């Protein structure tokens, strides 16, 4: 009888040990599943400097529904970003302020196939410091003694500078003002110079002027004086986060995102 009881007790103990082992395995599996669910995905968005403010708000809105996705935004002139990507710098998405830089990457087959889209349109304007001590009333004043320094993006790498140069050339101003021109390495540098009074005036995107209370918009550049200002977006072929990158690009084209873009002065590309 005693042996029989001992055998029963050993069997019960063995069953309990198996049960506990099973529970431990289930808990471990649950922890693994939870950890997987909480895994952070990071995507790098290389975006034109003129998108600085709007990208900050877009990132916050996107994170509300996608808390496990980290958005790292790399801001610079489109030309600088193009060179970075060509040299192998990590990036998942590229948003340029001109088709030119996107065309260059597409020609080198650095874009993921069929992911390129025209996202936004913009315009360029002539701005002065808020006080406008020089009394500049329009583009015609750039050729007068009122103006000593005109800030614009470097046409070699900054799309805003390329559009400004096209406008000045179209208006037959370029020869008269070339000695007054000072070049910034991105459009936000130009904005800062004008804000601080380091230049009498400057040419920036209308969206940049809209976010500053230190400058005044004097005039819009004639729309037919420069090429259409189109911001294309594309996923890069080198991305390892295709699903997350596509999700963010889809979001950028959504109605909710476009309302935010409109708030900062951008319009949807047709």
TrEMBL record:
<feature type="binding site">
    <location>
        <position position="50"/>
    </location>
    <ligand>
        <name>molybdate</name>
    </ligand>
</feature>
<feature type="signal peptide">
    <location>
        <begin position="1"/>
        <end position="28"/>
    </location>
</feature>
<comment type="similarity">
    <text>Belongs to the bacterial solute-binding protein ModA family.</text>
</comment>
<dbReference type="InterPro" id="IPR005950">
    <property type="entry name" value="ModA"/>
</dbReference>
<dbReference type="Pfam" id="PF13531">
    <property type="entry name" value="SBP_bac_11"/>
</dbReference>
<dbReference type="InterPro" id="IPR050682">
    <property type="entry name" value="ModA/WtpA"/>
</dbReference>
<keyword id="KW-0500">Molybdenum</keyword>
<dbReference type="GO" id="GO:0030973">
    <property type="term" value="F:molybdate ion binding"/>
</dbReference>
<dbReference type="GO" id="GO:0046872">
    <property type="term" value="F:metal ion binding"/>
</dbReference>
<dbReference type="InterPro" id="IPR041879">
    <property type="entry name" value="YvgL-like_PBP2"/>
</dbReference>
<feature type="binding site">
    <location>
        <position position="160"/>
    </location>
    <ligand>
        <name>molybdate</name>
    </ligand>
</feature>
<keyword id="KW-0732">Signal</keyword>
<dbReference type="GO" id="GO:1901359">
    <property type="term" value="F:tungstate binding"/>
</dbReference>
<keyword id="KW-0479">Metal-binding</keyword>
<feature type="binding site">
    <location>
        <position position="78"/>
    </location>
    <ligand>
        <name>molybdate</name>
    </ligand>
</feature>
<dbReference type="GO" id="GO:0015689">
    <property type="term" value="P:molybdate ion transport"/>
</dbReference>
<feature type="binding site">
    <location>
        <position position="205"/>
    </location>
    <ligand>
        <name>molybdate</name>
    </ligand>
</feature>
<protein>
    <submittedName>
        <fullName>Molybdate transport system substrate-binding protein</fullName>
    </submittedName>
</protein>
<feature type="binding site">
    <location>
        <position position="187"/>
    </location>
    <ligand>
        <name>molybdate</name>
    </ligand>
</feature>
């Amino acid at each position: 009888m005693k042996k029989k009881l001992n055998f029963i007790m050993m069997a019960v103990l063995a069953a309990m040990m198996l049960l506990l082992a099973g529970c431990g395995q289930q808990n471990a599996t649950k922890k693994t599943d939870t950890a997987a669910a909480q895994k952070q995905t990071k995507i790098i968005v290389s975006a034109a400097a003129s998108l600085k403010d709007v990208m900050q708000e877009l990132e916050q809105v996107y994170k509300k529904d996608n808390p496990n996705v980290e958005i790292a935004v790399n801001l610079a002139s489109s030309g600088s970003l193009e060179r970075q990507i060509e040299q192998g710098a990590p990036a998942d998405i590229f948003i340029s302020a001109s088709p030119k830089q996107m065309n260059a990457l597409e020609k080198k087959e650095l874009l993921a196939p069929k992911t390129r889209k025209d996202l936004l349109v913009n315009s360029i304007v002539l701005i002065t410091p808020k006080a406008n001590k020089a009394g500049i009333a329009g583009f015609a004043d750039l050729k007068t003694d009122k103006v000593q320094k005109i800030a614009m993006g470097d046409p070699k790498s900054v799309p805003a500078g390329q559009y400004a140069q096209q406008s000045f050339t179209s208006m037959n101003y370029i020869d008269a003002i070339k000695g007054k021109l000072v070049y910034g390495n991105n459009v936000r540098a130009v904005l800062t110079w004008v804000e601080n009074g380091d230049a009498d005036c400057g040419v920036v995107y209308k969206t940049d002027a809209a976010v500053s209370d230190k400058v005044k918009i004097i005039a819009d550049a004639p729309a037919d004086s420069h090429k259409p200002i189109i911001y294309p977006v594309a996923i890069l072929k080198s991305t390892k986060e295709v699903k997350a990158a596509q999700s963010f690009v889809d979001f950028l084209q959504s109605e909710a995102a476009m309302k935010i873009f409109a708030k900062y002065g951008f319009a949807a590309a047709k």
